User: Fold these one by one.
Assistant:
Number 1:
Amino acid sequence: MQHSEHAERMAIEPLYLILLGAGWLLYVGAIFLSNKKRRPWPWFRTVFWSAGIISMALVLTGPLAAWSHTSFIAHMVGHLLLGMLAPLFMVLSAPMTLILRALNVDSARRLVFLLKSRPIFWLSHPVTAAILNVGGLYVLYTTDIYLAMHHNPLIELVVHAHVFFAGYLFTGAIIYIDPVAHRFSYLYRSVILIAALAGHGILSKYIYAYPPTGVPRGEAEAGGMLMYYGGDAIDLMLIVILCYHWYKATRPRLPEIGSEGAN
């Protein structure tokens, strides 16, 4: 049985690599199209996208992916990379801005119309994103889904997809890097972020005290601590970016030299 499960996991890894490679190539292709019509795309955005792809690849393939099936600590490292760090990197790479730059005018307008639609509004709402992100983790670790994902590659695929996309939605709902059709105030987003951080911290303590099904207590304690302190480290980056944007938006603007004379 274990040999069959291992074979199935090994068979799905090339699919992950193909999808990740395609994602990187699409981003680079969009840069090529964009640079033909507009000023060069910032190099650091490409670095962020590449870092996000690498973070995902480390979780979905290779030694860490194999170890995560037998070690809760390795699984938690994967959670931090796939659900928190990779989404942050990819939000900072501004993929939607790049797509809008690369598309022709008619296609860009259709995409903007879609982004302004009611379903997208509710999906990208900070409260919805926080529930999908943190609430999904509660479902994962307080039910038998965690145990099932290590025996069923399809469930594992669904869990990985949810963890990443929920993390991306939440990060994008808190810090505005790409154009946003429905903007919420800095105070509102800060309150949602604080609530989400509290929920994440409470869950990590719950895992420490009440290990998920099939997880030894020692590993649960180490994994809970890693989730708590590792999550705080990544969330600190999110807080710094949000506060920096807030400062830039509200700082007093000094009049330019000579502006009074011009009036």
Number 2:
Amino acid sequence: MDFSEVSCREFVDVLGSKAPVPGGGGASALVGAVGCALGNMVGSLTVGKKKYKDVEADMAALTAQAEKIQSDLLGLIQRDAEVFEPLSKVYAMKHDTEEQKQKKAEAMEKALREACTVPIEIMEKTCEAIELLVEFASKGSVMAVSDAGAGAACCSGALKAASLNVYINTKSMSDRSYADQLNRSCDRMLEKYTRIAEDIFNDVQSRLK
């Protein structure tokens, strides 16, 4: 099953079941894609409007970038499921003998590293989406500015959710130097981009109230 292709209802039903995938990573990718799409909506509603002729070229470029990020994030829903599967199998490996323990430990470290790759990429793509939302919110049609604020809120949540899928895996890594490196990367993205997303949201809210 390709989780980026199923209906919203089916995705949510499987998400809420005992199935190991999709999980928080896939959900964060979807929410990030939704947040990016809301920004893209602002661009789409701005292009072609006489009032916004001066920023039309900017909006057209932004929508093209947003479409790419949306597509990338949707693809990461399935990729997250694919990288988690080996990890779930490692947890089930026997560890009765010293040899089995060693093999499991080695397989676990490899699987944990692989499982971190997708949520890190989800975070990176979501950060890119937030950067676009800054432009959509400031230059886009005022009639759609609420969608830019909603997009920022979604992307902030997606960024935070994806980070937890990194932290839960780095916590179990034996290579603490590598784990700390990944954690610091997540920390930097959270610190910078949740603040930007919050600024977008607050600005939009102040313009609407």
Number 3:
Amino acid sequence: MSASISAGRLIARLSRYGLILALIAVFSIFSAAAPTFLTTGNLQSILVNNFTLLAIVSIAMTLAVSAGGIDLSVGTAVDFASFAFVSLVLAGQPVALALLAALLAGALVGAFNAILISAIGVSPFLATLGTLFIGRSIQQLLTNGGNPVYLPPNGVPDAFRFLGHGTIAGLPVPLLIAAVVISSVAVLYSQTRFGRVVLSIGLQPSVVRYSGIALGRDVAVIFILAGTVAAIAGIILTSTVTVYIPSSGNAFLLNAIGATFIGTTFSPLGRPNVAGTVLGVLLLSIVSNGLLLTGLNFYWQQVGTGSLIFAVLAFSFINQKAVGA
């Protein structure tokens, strides 16, 4: 009996820390396979170019999934924020006003989802899928069929460029912003009653409902918050490339879903969590960068990323079944 219990504990630990083992494995593989992988410039590129934006969008996704739903419109919130930001900067408005408008645009996407889900009763999957399609169509209409909106090379405010290219104490501003977002949501879950209620909604919604908590209101707040967080990624993206490209935010959607669900393997209960999501994003970022350095084309990179997501989730599922048995 004691031997079986010890084996079960070992399997449970492997299941929880399998994500860290996967990180160590891919880091070691690419360190050996790509001579430039371990250079300072490349490691910084992983954090700034691969990790930062995906981490913010994945945190937005984690908010929705932790409440028992999913948000397929996080890319739409990124795009709407980007469009609002570019439009106001082009109009000569202060950067502070452009920032506020961008955050509001993302929040409005979340609010639209909240109305569909909490007030009308549409499932999160269908509600956010509808928002995705509607948002894409609106962007096409606003840009005469999807034409990019460029900012002029000269005359862009320094404060605008600072958000995408500036540094503070030698650290890139986009990475610092991502760290603030990650830390804030982690504190929300661990230190506030609202965060604990949201986690309970995702785990046992019926219990929360019967306890008298306004479940619909809290879910609505979560989706508005998810849209606002995704908008931050839109601001950084626009500040980095100085152009708004319609529907470009949807490029983050699948990897954000993958990172969030990979992150669930880091939780003893298999639930979405901030630390796990961050590790999931880091894993996907390393794989994306490493495959690029080894010379594989874009399509094989997608195959590699998808296979990795499948392998990590399958490993966790098998281990959880073994523990349950």
